[in-house]
UniProtKB/TrEMBL annotation:
Pfam families reported for this sequence: PTS_IIA (PF02255)
InterPro entries hit by this protein: PTS_IIA_lac/cel, PTS_IIA_lac/cel_sf
One Gene Ontology term of the molecular function aspect: transferase activity
Gene encoding the protein: licA
Cofactor binding remark: Binds 1 Mg(2+) ion per trimer.
Protein name: Lichenan-specific phosphotransferase enzyme IIA component
Gene3D superfamilies, alphabetized: Phosphotransferase system, lactose/cellobiose-type IIA subunit
Record bears the keyword Transferase: yes
Residues modified as Phosphohistidine: H76
Active site annotation, chain numbering: H76 (tele-phosphohistidine intermediate)
Length: 117
């Protein structure tokens, strides 16, 4: 495997891990585990930074005169990266909504408990 393919595979791998972490964050938030969800989102962001660094490396190579063939694998990598970024953005909003919902439900339960006393 040449350097170009290794960079592409790195983008795919990092983007895949990022998307998985974003989906894990949503699942954790849904169960009321807001802190763990936030940690997953941070891991997601780190993976995306790594993927973006690889992408930037390819862009710099091309800007420096080293043109690479646009392969189906490269298109796949870009698709993965864009999908992961979108998933991360949406997951952040969903995690926040679940956190608000969980706080609201806890407040309602607390109010109900206080009234019964």
């Amino acid at each position: 495997m040449d350097e170009y393919q290794e960079i592409i595979m790195g983008i795919i791998t990092n983007a895949g891990f990022a998307k998985s972490k974003a989906m894990e964050a949503i699942a954790l938030a849904q169960k009321g585990h807001s802190e763990q969800a936030a940690e997953c989102l941070e891991e997601c962001k780190k993976e995306l930074v790594d993927a973006h660094k690889s992408q930037t490396r390819l862009i710099q190579q091309e800007a420096g005169g080293t043109a690479h063939e646009v392969t189906l694998l490269m298109v796949h990598a870009q698709d993965h990266l864009m999908s992961a970024i979108t998933t991360k953005d949406l997951a952040g909003h969903i995690v926040e909504l679940y956190s608000r919902l969980n706080r609201y439900e806890a407040a309602v339960v607390q109010n109900t408990t206080n009234r019964e006393d």
